[in-house]
Specification:
There is one protein chain. The protein is α/β, with parallel strands linked by helices. Helix content is about 30%, strand content about 25%. β1, α2 and β2 form a beta-alpha-beta unit. The longest helix has 12 residues. About 50% of the residues are buried. Bound molecules: ribulose-5-phosphate.
Length: about 220
């Protein structure tokens, strides 16, 4: 099976977690795009979708799916999104597509986080994928120095601004043995808007696309 076929399979499986007549939170990226395409088939059953980026909003709109503003949503039973890396403990690196801040906000509101990923994303230790950190532009050099102190090699994502008008540092060379601790440490650095470590609020369910079918893992 190709990687796209695995992504399509997990996207299809994720539809089973969508709750009728209520809103659904929708992530960003190529795997989330497959989910949006599946969601379009059942759009009459949901109250609407809360997007985690402008790109996702545009794709939802293209399918005629109603967009809801997070501030107007009282109950969000489920958020479906991909990941750049995930461990069996459900901690993730996200933000490869630069949407980490809104993704973290929508995930925080949702009762259940369903991560959809192909099997290449499951790793024993996070950090091979460079850790994205969204920063206020004037703080980028300071935050970069702090990342060096934490053992990483930060690189500014060139010619890129987030939906919130900020910059992204991609931090290479980290072996993240304690994601909870590192997330809290980076959150405490002045000028950091969001770190792409999702450990404090990890996934509740992982739908993993494999050659043998979709595996379902749940948070222990
Ligand atoms: C975007 C993200 C994505 O979920 C992550 O980059 C995975 O993307 P893809 O499904 O294209 O591999 O965090 O900010």
């Amino acid at each position: 099976m190709t990687q796209d076929e695995l992504k399509a399979a997990v996207a299809k499986e994720a539809i089973k977690h969508v709750v009728d007549d209520l809103p659904v939170g929708v992530g960003t990226g190529s795997t989330a795009n497959f989910f949006i395409d599946e969601l379009a088939k059942i759009k009459g059953r949901i109250a609407g979708a809360v997007p985690s980026s402008e790109r996702t909003a545009e794709r939802l709109r293209g399918h005629g799916i109603r967009i809801l503003e997070l501030n107007n949503v009282n109950e969000l039973p489920v958020y479906v999104d991909g990941a750049d890396e995930i461990t069996e403990h459900m901690a993730m690196i996200k933000g490869g597509g630069g949407a980490l801040t809104r993704e973290k906000i929508v995930a925080a509101v949702a009762k259940k986080f369903v991560c959809i990923a192909d099997e290449t994303k499951l790793v024993p230790v996070l950090g091979k994928f460079p850790l994205p950190v969204e920063v206020i532009p004037m703080a980028r050099s300071y935050v970069a120095r702090m990342m060096v102190k934490l053992g990483g090699q930060p690189r500014l994502r060139e010619n890129f601004a987030t939906d919130n008008g900020n910059a992204i540092l991609d931090v290479h060379g980290l072996a993240i043995l304690n994601p909870l601790e590192l997330e809290a440490k980076i959150n405490n650095i002045a000028g950091v808007v969001t770190v792409g470590l999702f450990a404090l609020r990890g996934a509740d369910v992982l739908l993993l696309g494999t050659g043998q079918g979709v595996r379902t893992l749940t948070r222990k």
